[in-house]
Amino acid sequence: LTVAEMLRQTGYATACIGKWHLGLGWQHRDDGSVDFSLPLLSSPLDCGFDEFFGISASLNMEPYCFIRDRHTVGIPSIPKNPVHRGQNPNGLMVEDWKDELVNTRITEEALSYIRSRVADEPEKPFFLYLPLTGPHNPWVPNEEFRGKSQVGLRGDMILEMDWSLGKIMSLLEELEIDKDTLLIFTSDNGPHSFDVDELEVYGHDQTAGYRGQKADIWEGGHRVPFIAGWPNAIPAGTTSNETVELTDFMATCAEIVGAAIPDGAAEDSCNVLPAMLGQCLEKPIREAIVSHSLEGMFAVRKGRWKFIDGPLGGGFHWKEALKQYPDAAPGQLYDMESDAAERENLYERRPEVVAELRGLLDGYRGT
User: Fold this and answer.
1) Contact assessment for residue 103 and residue 134, using Cβ atoms and an 8 Å cutoff
2) In whole angstroms, what is the distance from residue 341 CA to residue 338 CA?
3) How far apart are CA 367 and CA 287, in angstroms?
């Protein structure tokens, strides 16, 4: 069961507009190539969404075309040109495809969807999932944003995302539904700098002081913004130190709409609505959170403590890093209240905490 399907069952219209990257059911010819003229056998429409418009994955992955519901918009048949970093030079695109216009088109489709929902069925609630392509590479912002952030091309794409969010917020206000609409802005992982040291080159600390980056087990790879606006429910300026996961979105939505989650669904989801509403909590909402790196290294966070079951970051180029640091501790323990930057490893000094958290992690693994 997905969030979209659960909400659809309670009367919501549902749409996914943007980057999917969860797999699509392409049909193939006898020679193994994709036949873009045939409908997709699986798509967001099979995951609870009434409508889908967007791209198949990140902008560094082919095919380079838009998809509406189960069909490509045009037939990708032209070799990719120009080829940006990370893109397949043999990848196919549709005629007149421009990477730098994708986020603009996605935003326009989202605005059109919201307008049509309010105009056609004003009493029917809707759920819009809007995964933008930025700031994932390639960093190809629209021309009007290029050079405006003063933090390089990646910063320009973040500025473009800010524009997209602003357009959505302005439309909700224009349609006078902003106060009753829950709007959440978040990310699936931390930033990836490639070979650009943004702090050194631009004076911009992309991880806000946290260690590591996307794919690492450290906070720079996992701690992301979670910003919620809901004027009729969430007091302005509310903040919370509650530790939550994106998986908690489902149980939270279920609480808001009064839906029951069936057995076997959303087993890792907790209702974090009390934290969002700024309520005083007597105890943490969830016992702990578990995360893992690109290479499968696990970590568990409970209260002030974070235990990492392995050495170093476990992300990109991890195995090469292990060769450079053969004496790295076999595990890591950090006090997140006093050392959120994860600089002082207490693994050797607090064996009792390590044992407790290792047992908790092993228990989760065996569940």
Assistant:
1) yes
2) 9
3) 15
Residue 39 per-residue DSSP state: P
Give the number of C-alpha atoms closer than 13 A to the C-alpha of residue 118, restricted to the C-beta side: 17
Q: Is the dihedral of CA 315, 240, 270, 161 positive or negative?
A: negative
Query: Could you give the CA distance from residue 338 to residue 218 in angstroms, rounded to a whole number?
Result: 15
Q: Amino acid identity of 5?
A: E
Name the nearest CA neighbour of 286 among 319, 244, 316.
244
Tens-digit pLDDT profile for residues 48-103: 999 999 999 999 999 999 999 999 999 999 999 999 988 999 999 999 999 999 99
Task: Give me the count of residues in the chain.
Answer: 367
Residue 100 has which token pair?
């730098």
Structure tokens at 365: 């693994």
Take residue 70 and report the two structure tokens written for it.
């189960």
For residues 351 and 330, the answer to whether their CB atoms sit within 8 Å is no
Phi-psi group of 278: left, alpha or beta (phi > 0 → left; psi -120 to 50 → alpha; rest → beta): left
How far is the C-alpha of 328 from the C-alpha of 331, rounded, in Å? 8
Distance, in Å, from the CA atom of 187 to the CA atom of 282, rounded to the nearest integer, reads 28
Give dist(CA 91, CA 35) in Å, integer: 14
- The span from the CA of 302 to the CA of 357, in Å, is 8
pTM over the 0.90 mark: yes
CA contacts within 13 A on the Cβ side of 199 = 9
DSSP string, 121-182: -TTS-EEEE----TTSSS----GGGTTTSSSHHHHHHHHHHHHHHHHHHHHHHHTT-GGG--
Indicate the angle between helix axes 152-174 and 102-120, nearest 10 degrees: 10
Please state whether 6 falls in left (phi above 0), alpha (psi between -120 and 50) or beta: alpha
Q: Residues 245, 300: contact at Cβ < 8 Å?
A: no
DSSP 259: P
What does the pLDDT look like over 94-145, one tens digit per residue? 999 999 999 999 999 999 999 999 999 999 999 999 999 988 989 999 999 9
